[in-house]
Amino acid sequence: MESNENSSTYTSHLRPPSKIPSTDKGLFEISNNARTAIPPPGTMSLKHRPASALPEPTPKRKTLAQRAGETKSGLPAPPSSRPVGSAVRAATLAGARNMSMTSSRVPAAASRGASASSFSKSMGPGSRPASVAGSSRPQTSMRHARGVPSTSVPTARPATSLESRSSEDEAAVSGKRKAWDTNGRLEDMEQLYHQLKDQMTGSSKERNVLEETVSIYKTRVTELEAIKTQLSTHNMSLQTDLETTKIKLSSTTNTLDEERRSNGAKLDDLQRQHRNDMEDARRHAQFETERLIRAHQEEIVQLERRLQSNFEDERRKHLRELEEAIFKGGQDKRQTEEQLEAKDNELQGLETELKQTTRDLEREKLLTEKLRNNLAETSASSLGLESSMRSLRAKIEFLESDSKAQSQCYADLEQRLQDALAAATEAKEKLRKEETLRRKLHNQVQELKGNIRVFCRVRPPISSEPENTVARLNFPDGDGESRELEVNGPEEKNSLGNVTVKKNAFAFDRVFAPGCQNADVFEEISQLVQSALDGYNVCIFCYGQTGSGKTHTMSSDDGMIPRAVHQIYDTAKSLEEKGWRYTMEGSFVEVYNETINDLLGKPEEFDKKKHEIRHDLQRCKTIITDVNTVTMDSPNKVESILQRATANRSVAATKANNRSSRSHSVFILKLIGENSVTGEKSEGTLNLVDLAGSERLSHSGATGERLRETQNINRSLSCLGDVIGALGQGKEGGHVPYRNSKLTYLLQFSLGGNSKTLMFVMISPLQAHLSETLTSLKFATKVHNTHIGTAKRQAKVKD
Ligand SMILES: Nc1ncnc2c1ncn2[C@@H]1O[C@H](COP(=O)(O)OP(=O)(O)OP(=O)(O)O)[C@@H](O)[C@H]1O
């Protein structure tokens, strides 16, 4: 199988078969690399020989020379197509025909058979007429060819026929003729004689023909002998060729076998190598495929992760953009509404003006009418006036004589004017001095009120809170400026079964009952805001549990922050005529989990950007790095600031609950004033702080992130208490633990000696919050009992 496969791929190195030159004496028939010379037609037509006449194939093939020898001895005579045979037959037939032509009584060739038959009956087969012999001549010829002596046939056969058959013929004739019919019998004899004579003539002719044929055959035999010799010579050479070819063939076969063997070995090697290569390649491909699959899977995972984070970023970004857009939209809407309102007012003003102008016009018309009348009257009276003028001129002439007295009068008037101007300057100066005095007195009053004050505010129950859930809170001095609060504790049964209620009484600088509004609260703190304008550091913070109303008090639309800003604007404007010019800068930060976030910063930087608190101890100033500061050049800016801060906090709230409850927010307003007349400068800071809900950890039940938030809130509120406590001890140069929390560190210069502090303790009215309420009130009481040293004004006076 392998050699067969190889035969198609390997070229044979065998020498091509040797060419034997063709001779003009015969064709070459090629079979099994043996060449057989076939004599050309005319000499010996083996090609046309019938298959049956050919010798049986023998296992070992005979040479052509041998086969030529067989032809001479064993092959039948050449067929009738052969020219020699044809000539013999033609001559025989011609002879027969001549014979029948010479005897008119003998029937033609067609009736020859019948006559021959009758003749055979009478004379037997050996005495057949020449015509009959002619028809069977090929057999005769064949017999000649096979070596039957031709001379014995024509001589012996007629005689034998005649001898054997004469007695029968005679008997037959004698049977027909009468013994006495001599003439008839003579005629028969004569007829028989003629017949015999003809037969003799035919036989002699046939003999001639046969002799001719014999001579032809002899020639033919000679020819065949020559051919045989030629063929045997050729055969010899072919034999030699065949032997040579066989040797070559065997050597070629050997070479081929060796080649096949070596090629087979090589092929085996190659196949083995190929199999090994294939195996290696398969293993390598498998390894590569697995590696690529792993790499692709990793890539897919990374891509998925990247896409996920991109998607998250995009989502956050879009959310922030949406928030900003909503915020901006709200702002735009408000501005547009304001503009519309302004336009409406303007329109109304214009309408009023138009009405006024129309009224003025009417009045003018009336006036013109009146003036015309007056003119008429005036022209009437002008005559009278002219006469009086004349009289006056007369008087002037008289008065001119008294001019010295008049000059004196003018000098007096001038003096009085100068005196009045000096008095006015003196009055202005006095006013400025009084303003300074007012500030001084105002702050003295504030100081007398205490540098840390505590206000308590109880929020009203909101619509979702039913009446029966409200705790019993009493305001004993609720008629006027309330300062006291009484909280009834839970009902307790004593050992005698009497139900008792514990009353917890608290007193603060002010107590605001649920019915109080933000306006009432602000009225009380407006004096502190004035102190900030006067150059003091003021800190107002709201303390209380979640939902107690801190944000409502501080940052709602009418809360302390917007009201404070508006008051500062109004006051700053009124102070302009007293020589004061103020610049105001606002910033808003959040302390969440001990980290500072800029509530006015970009939403995407929220919870990411790091801010640090830096103190200028010389100037008692606090700076927070990288926070946005807004110049408050218009009172409307405060609303946009509050909205921006709320939006930022709500974005953050999506991640960790309600951010406003869980972080401290600090609104910082810096007020820098300069008096161009007196050269005075003042720098005050107003800090408005909304503290995170003050729930106790045990009550909150918080876990995880909420627990961390609550711990941070409680720690910072506790630090605030510690700072206030340390300040309350009033030791000069004593340690105040500001650094213990971000909140106290941030408010370092707004708590203590250099500042005025106001704490709001916010109270929920609900019975459910009673415990937290009491805790808050106790903390506030502690703060209220603290006395903090005198505040110092941050003011400089020009030399
Ligand atoms: N004085 C008040 N008058 C009317 N409603 C009030 C008053 N105080 C608070 N509320 C309402 O009570 C609810 C809770 O108030 P607020 O959000 O201000 O509490 P909070 O202490 O700031 O809570 P948190 O710590 O969660 O921020 C709000 O719906 C608010 O409108």
UniProtKB/TrEMBL annotation:
Polar residues: bias regions: 1-12, 133-142
Coiled coil: 286-374, 410-451
Main location: cytoplasm
Binding locations of ATP: 544-551
Keywords: ATP-binding, Coiled coil, Cytoplasm, Cytoskeleton, Microtubule, Motor protein, Nucleotide-binding
Extent of Low complexity compositional bias: 103-128
Gene Ontology terms: cellular component: microtubule
Signal peptide interval: none
MF terms (GO), sorted A to Z: ATP binding; microtubule binding; minus-end-directed microtubule motor activity
Domain Kinesin motor: 451-786
SUPFAM superfamilies given in the database record: P-loop containing nucleoside triphosphate hydrolases (SSF52540)
Pfam (any one): Kinesin
CDD domains in UniProt: KISc_C_terminal
Region ranges (Disordered): 1-182, 252-276, 474-493
Subcellular location: Cytoplasm, Cytoskeleton
Keyword Cytoplasm: yes
Matching PANTHER family: KINESIN-LIKE PROTEIN KLP-3, PROTEIN CLARET SEGREGATIONAL
Family: Belongs to the TRAFAC class myosin-kinesin ATPase superfamily. Kinesin family. KIN-14 subfamily.
Protein name stated in the entry: Kinesin-like protein
Annotated source species: Xylona heveae (strain CBS 132557 / TC161)
